[in-house]
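Protocol step 4 of 6: structure prediction from sequence.
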Amino acid sequence: MKKTAIHQTKRRDDPRWFNKWVQSPRWFLGFWIAVAVCLALYGLNAFFGRIHPGSAWGLGFGISAAVLFVAVFAYAVRRRTMRFRPGRTWYYLQVHVYGGTLFILLMFMHVGFKVPQGLLTWWLWALSLWVVGSGLLGIVLQKWIPTLLNSGLSIEVHYDRIPQLVEALKQRADTLVTSCDAPIQTFYRKHLALALARPEARLIYYVDITGGLHARTRQFDQLRALLPPPEQEKLGALQDMYRTKLEIDAHFTLQKALRWWLYLHVPVSILLIALLALHIFAVLYY
């Protein structure tokens, strides 16, 4: 399992942090122009009269938010549709990110930056905050976690293969230990066997990507001083396996966060679009 270098072409005139978080300066600039226009319109109309969901401008902001949310939802449809895929996925992603953020602004403008009183509208308001907030969290995780994994690990593993890799590593360690003397066998049963048994998610990897490797391997150094050279080599091989297991656990912990984030975002997004359709029907019907 060797680490594969990933090279990305970056603009020389862009700061690193900006180029890391903003894939397209044009989309970024266009988003802020749209935000400025929306706020200017809201301020102008608020100056001449009260804006509420039933007013002409309130309805306009609400319709714009609904249309924008449908455009945002098109990214999910684009990813899951195999036969009909017009356009590049990258453009759908930009609409999804910037459009989703602009949607929440238009939603606030639609209700006059107040918490709505009706049950349906309150749930729409709350779920909109949840969906956009979880979406922004997803952006942070997708930018931060890959960088964290590449910063201090020597291996790259696919999340779905982790159980197989851990099982194979455990079998190799068990085989090696059978040829070792009693001190290593006792050390293995007491300190390593359980750690190598299964993937383990640990919060420390969010702070220290090595999982406290130096502190956790001191016992190896203490035991090594008591062993003859042949047994020291076997202990070194066992220590390398343990180090690999800790790195696999780091991938397991952080990649699992990316997987579970989807459960926070996608189901609520589907519920939100259903409630939005119900809200539009109620407005048109009544």
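Step 5 (inspection) to follow. The chain has two domains: 23-142+262-285, 159-259.
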